[in-house]
Design a protein that fits this description.
heterodimer, A: alpha/beta, 15 helices, B: 142 residues, 3 helices
């Protein structure tokens, strides 16, 4: 695990404190969306399809700070939209750093190299750069050639200037695990702090509705990717959550673990689903009918979800909330997950015949590489 | 879509290979018949889910275009409301269901018509023709 000790200590203290107070439902990370405007039009994203007058709206820094204080979280993720398009994003980041919140600024990095000089390196600030794999795969996923090169330039510049950087990859059906593993090698060689991974969520507003993996396929893909790890690889995620993605653990969704706040208000029930908004965080916690969501509910909108905003919080809560979880987390940090079956699966991995979402080259070419 | 429809067992979920995508209902241009309270509630649920502007006519005769982003359906129309943004007006607006006379889905549905498969086909053709820097760009909003 690549997360600094000071951050782990802050999160551990927070979790233990909540547990000692007997709090059963509490947030861990605020998903703060200061705007929905974006400079990409990705196939798998359902976040940015709004009329122009809505895309022009933004949260003020004061609204951002109030939301963070209201939720009382130790960590803040700033997705969107593209946060670097917010004219006051530096002010927002500086205000959150002053409040000693650990921030993950999620960016596609198209603007990162140009704007990096406006930010100051801090242990509280991480640039979480959207990078869905190797060059061709990423460019295809974000529907723009040259997107990878711009993002990597931004990453290199941020690393050079001493910022914490974590490439953040979302994988859809058709992902080649061998290519993902090469992507890990390339990113670690650049000097990033660690990788962040997620299976794609089936946004019903996303342009492409045909490439969302079900849970069985997600587990198979992540077992192929994450077994037999190289010692150079670091992950900026809970090891227990990665075991969940590989199918070694099971968690139920904790949607209140990473609540979402945007220009619309506090989003019910989670970052991914839009079932209404509340004016206050307290109202969100008290009026959301939580048992209508997650796998046990049978809700079809939750059926394929294995995304961190629902499932990393319970992993972190277990890791810092029990000795058994803590031991599992420590073991997971140093475990290379040797698995002969997964290695065989990786070596025999066949890409789909029809052009999958994250595959520009003809599948035959990639297959030859896999057989090698 | 609300969370009312219960569909999958845990076993079905855990063994699912591919998650079915959503079928987009073509609502652009739709003018619902608001003949009953249930029809009004149903239309406002669709308006809430719609990613385009809606033209709302009030019983007072006032008419405006707005983006509906929230709704609350209570036990009666008097307890039910929608929240919306008006173009060029700061702040959230709120309106009771009982004040609404007519709804028209007049704005462009921003979540429809992206024609992903068409774009993939066009991309492959342009790539094969040797074109560089091919991209699907976000719409200009300024």
């Amino acid at each position: 695990m690549a997360i600094p000790i000071s951050q782990m200590w802050t999160v551990a203290s927070y979790v233990v404190g909540k547990r000692l107070k007997g709090n059963k439902r509490y947030p861990l990370v605020l998903m703060l969306e200061p705007l929905f405007r974006c400079n990409l039009a990705c196939a798998g994203c359902g976040k940015v399809q709004y009329p122009p007058h809505v895309l022009k709206r933004m949260l003020t820094p004061e609204e951002c700070f109030a939301a963070v204080e209201e939720a009382g979280v130790p960590m803040v993720s700033i997705p969107g939209g593209e946060p670097l398009l917010h004219p006051r994003i530096v002010e927002i980041v500086e205000g959150l750093v002053a409040r000693k919140k650990y921030i993950y600024l999620c960016t596609n990095a198209l603007e990162l190299k140009r704007r990096i000089h406006e930010f100051t390196p801090s242990k509280y600030l991480t640039f979480s750069v959207h990078l869905d794999g190797e060059r061709e795969h990423h460019d295809y996923a974000v529907c723009r050639e040259g997107g990878y090169d711009l993002a990597v330039e931004g990453i290199k510049e941020a690393v050079k200037r001493g910022f914490r950087v974590t490439p953040n990859s979302t994988f859809f059906d058709g992902t080649d695990p061998n290519s993902v593993r090469r992507h890990f090698d390339q990113m670690m060689a650049i000097g990033v702090e660690g990788m962040v991974l997620s299976p794609g969520y089936s946004y019903d507003k996303a342009p492409d509705q045909n490439r969302f993996m079900g849970r069985a396929r997600v587990r198979k893909l992540f077992r192929a990717i994450l077994s037999n790890r190289k010692k150079e690889w670091k992950f900026n995620m809970s090891p227990l959550f990665l075991e969940f993605l590989m199918g070694d653990r099971n968690y139920d969704c904790v949607p209140w673990g990473m609540p979402s706040y945007s220009i619309f208000g506090w989003q019910k029930p989670c970052y991914l689903l839009q079932d209404g908004y509340t004016e206050t965080f307290k109202e969100l916690m008290e009026t959301t009918e939580w048992d209508k969501y997650g796998v046990p509910s049978g809700n079809p909108q939750c059926a394929n979800c294995m995304v961190s905003c629902g499932y990393e919080a319970p992993a972190v809560m277990e890791g810092f909330g029990s000795w058994k979880g803590f031991v599992g987390m420590v073991k997971g940090t140093f475990n290379m997950y040797k698995d002969d079956h997964a290695l065989k699966m990786l070596n025999e991995w066949k890409n789909e015949e029809e052009g999958p979402l994250v595959q520009i080259t003809k599948p035959a070419a990639a297959l030859e590489e896999t057989k090698a | 879509m609300s969370a009312e429809t219960l569909k999958y067992t845990r076993e079905q979920v855990e063994t699912m290979e591919v998650a079915p995508g959503a079928e987009h209902e073509k609502l652009e241009g739709w003018v619902p018949e608001l003949a009953s309270e249930a029809a009004l509630c149903d239309a406002l649920e669709k308006a809430f889910d719609y990613r385009g502007d809606i033209t709302i006519t009030l019983k007072s005769g006032e008419r405006f275009e707005a983006f509906v982003f929230n709704r609350h359906t209570g036990p009666s129309l008097a307890d039910s409301w929608v929240q919306y943004f008006l173009p060029n007006v700061e702040g959230k607006q709120k309106l009771g269901y009982s004040q609404i006379a007519r709804l028209e889905f007049t704005g462009k549905d921003r979540a429809a018509g992206k024609h992903w498969e068409d774009w993939v086909k066009a991309y492959n053709e342009r790539k094969a023709a040797g074109e560089k820097n091919i991209g699907l760009h976000a719409e200009e909003i300024d």
